[in-house]
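User: Hi! I have a protein structure encoded as tokens and I'd like to know what sequence might fold into it. I'm fairly new to this, so please keep things simple.
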């Protein structure tokens, strides 16, 4: 099983990272994270794990992710987000729900027909399998409405209802921002904005542990049977 995990990780990492990418590899206990740190997001900002088995990591979205349209001109900008691969470490099993979150990008729209939009698209693979398209438009949440305009944020989360897995890879992930119309339209990232990945991680008992557990159960059953015979 350990060889299978290692092989899956090697295949996934080879598929996920193109030649020349600046790859950082971090051992996070139950899993290893490999990612491209040369994007605008830079290095991973945090990781977490809890007693209920939930685990994950995130990147902060810098303020350099922004787009401004003045005077109604249609503008668009693409920002490459990190390629990454999660690989289960020996003795651990990873599982779903596997969830990705991106937000909250602040937008402002002022003037007639001012509009903004945001989308994130890429490709994902589980256990070294074929990559499939993922992503779509981020949801728009209006928080303030004022004369001839509004403000709010873009955010979205997506969950892959997968069972146990040994590796998960994402590549070609791009955030696209659009703004046009009105007198002014903008989308701006703030320090509390993030790209976050979360899943479950749990230790897998070694064969010796299973053997000890079965032996213990067998002993308990034997004692129970002897007691029944004495009471009969």
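Assistant: Happy to help. Inverse folding works backwards from shape to sequence: for each of the 232 positions I chose a residue that suits the local structure. Here it is:
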């Amino acid at each position: 099983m350990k060889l299978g995990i290692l092989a899956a990780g090697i295949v996934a990492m080879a598929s996920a990272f193109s030649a020349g990418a600046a790859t950082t590899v971090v051992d996070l206990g139950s899993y290893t994270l490999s990612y491209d740190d040369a994007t605008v997001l830079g290095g991973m900002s945090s990781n977490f794990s809890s007693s209920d088995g939930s685990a994950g990591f995130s990147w902060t979205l810098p303020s350099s992710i922004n787009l401004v349209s003045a005077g109604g001109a249609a503008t668009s900008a693409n920002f490459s987000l990190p390629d990454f691969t999660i690989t289960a470490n020996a003795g651990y099993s990873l599982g779903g729900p596997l969830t990705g979150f991106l937000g909250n990008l602040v937008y402002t729209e002022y003037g007639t027909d001012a509009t903004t939009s945001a989308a994130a698209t890429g490709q994902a693979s589980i256990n070294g399998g074929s990559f499939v398209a993922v992503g779509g438009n981020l949801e728009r949440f209006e928080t303030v409405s004022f004369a001839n305009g509004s403000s709010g944020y873009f955010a979205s989360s997506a969950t892959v209802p997968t069972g146990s897995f040994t590796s998960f890879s994402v590549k070609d992930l791009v955030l696209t921002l659009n703004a046009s119309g009105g007198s002014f339209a903008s989308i701006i990232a703030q320090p509390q904005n993030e790209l976050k990945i979360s899943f479950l991680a749990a230790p897998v008992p070694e064969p010796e542990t299973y053997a000890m557990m079965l032996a213990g159960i067998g002993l308990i059953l034997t004692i129970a049977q002897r007691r029944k015979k004495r009471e009969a």
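A useful reference point when you look it over: Residues 124 and 170 are 4 Å apart (CA to CA). Feel free to ask if any position seems puzzling.
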